[in-house]
């Protein structure tokens, strides 16, 4: 039987948490299909942390979401398990209000701060725990209530990250050969969140020593306090690449927008007429702008369609590559000032 290491573990060092847009532009052109709204508004939560003397330690990560539970186009519940007392962000330009973390296609900005002790009574939305097992050559998963197995990468000497292969049968992330790092520096990527359902997010970490030793006496199990970022991550997604939604028609316009806005509170709609002039050169004429449309009022979309058709009548001779461009800004159902997502260029062909 192994002899317990009789010393309290070091607490985990929380380094940063980041939001990343999950949708990759271009795939809908290859498949010929419009993107699924669940995919379009998906984002990933990335957490970077470090821990010294990781052997015999179980690292437990708890995620807290300000979560909306969707039922069709309605919202059934909303909770605030994470207590946010102050929010500090980075200004990201005109498209991103100050004090919000901004995600865009292929990049993200993030908040970083020293951890603080977790408040009593806060209940996590999700939990993931793992432990380093050098004798098995891997990092074993002890507990996982995330909807997907998260990605795990180790930081190497040149500050780059190596993605670890996950063995689903053994529930182990396989370490690189001859791994001997004194400090476990890793990046955990939790996937599959929808910006309208999970937005305000924070992480808390606890380190427990000796808990996984068979037959261990409770007196030899040591646990640190739970530490968390004092600043929650507030994602705001911006998609700038053109997204093709098929031919322009009343049913297509109303149907696609109703699919996209499900779960949001209000949406601002901008409609423009577009024409290709040369390679990568386009002209656009503004047609309509409608701010603050309630997602509970789909009849307003019919009025917008008729407005575009009225503007087009007798005004412009349609050419082969003309299109209607639709720009959308989506706002939270709970906080009308919170810009959750922006899609700048949805295209309907004429």
Task: Describe the protein's architecture and organization.
By secondary structure, the protein is mainly β. Helix content is 10%, strand content 46%. The chain is built from 4 helices and 24 strands. The strands form 3 sheets. Strands 3, 4, 8, 9, 10, 13, 14, 16, 17 and 18 form a 10-stranded antiparallel sheet that branches. Strand 11 and strand 12 form a beta hairpin. The longest helix is centred in the C-terminal third of the chain and has 14 residues, at 299-312. Mean pLDDT is 77; it is low at 27-32 and 69-120.
Number of strands: 24
Structural class estimated from helices and strands? mainly beta
Poorly predicted regions are 27-32, 69-120
Taken in chain order, the helices and strands follow as EHHEEEEEEEEEEEEEEEEEEEHEEHEE
Mean pLDDT across residues:
77
Largest sheet: 10 strands, antiparallel
């Amino acid at each position: 039987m192994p002899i317990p290491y009789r010393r309290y573990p070091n607490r985990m060092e929380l380094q940063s948490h980041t939001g990343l847009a999950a949708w990759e532009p271009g795939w809908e052109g290859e498949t010929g299909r419009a993107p699924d709204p669940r995919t379009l508004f998906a984002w990933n939560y990335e957490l970077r942390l470090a821990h010294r003397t990781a052997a015999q330690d179980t690292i437990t990560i708890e995620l807290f979401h300000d979560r909306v539970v969707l039922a069709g186009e309605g919202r059934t519940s909303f909770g605030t398990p994470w207590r946010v007392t102050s929010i500090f962000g980075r200004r990201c330009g005109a498209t991103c209000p100050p004090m919000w973390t901004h995600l865009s296609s292929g990049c993200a900005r993030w908040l970083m701060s020293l951890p603080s002790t977790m408040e009593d009574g806060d209940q996590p939305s999700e939990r993931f725990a793992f432990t380093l097992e050098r004798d098995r050559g891997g990092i074993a998963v002890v507990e996982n209530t995330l909807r997907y197995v998260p990605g795990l990468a180790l930081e190497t000497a040149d500050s780059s990250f190596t993605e670890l292969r996950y063995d689903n049968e053994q529930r182990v992330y396989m370490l690189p050969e001859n791994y001997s790092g004194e400090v476990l520096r890793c990046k955990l990527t939790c996937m599959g969140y929808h910006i309208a359902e999970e937005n305000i997010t924070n992480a808390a970490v606890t380190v427990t020593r000796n808990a996984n030793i068979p037959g261990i006496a409770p007196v030899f199990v040591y646990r640190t306090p739970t530490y968390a970022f004092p600043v929650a991550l507030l994602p705001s997604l911006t998609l700038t690449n053109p997204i093709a939604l098929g031919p322009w028609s009343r049913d297509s316009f109303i149907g696609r927008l109703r699919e996209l806005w499900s779960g949001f509170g209000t949406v601002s709609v901008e409609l423009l007429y577009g024409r290709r002039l040369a390679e990568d050169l386009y002209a656009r004429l503004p047609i309509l702008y409608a701010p603050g449309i309630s997602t509970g009022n789909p009849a307003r979309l019919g009025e917008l369609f008729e407005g575009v058709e009225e503007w087009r009548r007798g005004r412009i001779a349609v050419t082969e590559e003309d299109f209607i461009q639709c720009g959308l800004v989506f706002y939270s159902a709970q906080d009308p000032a919170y810009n959750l997502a922006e899609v700048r260029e949805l295209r309907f062909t004429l």
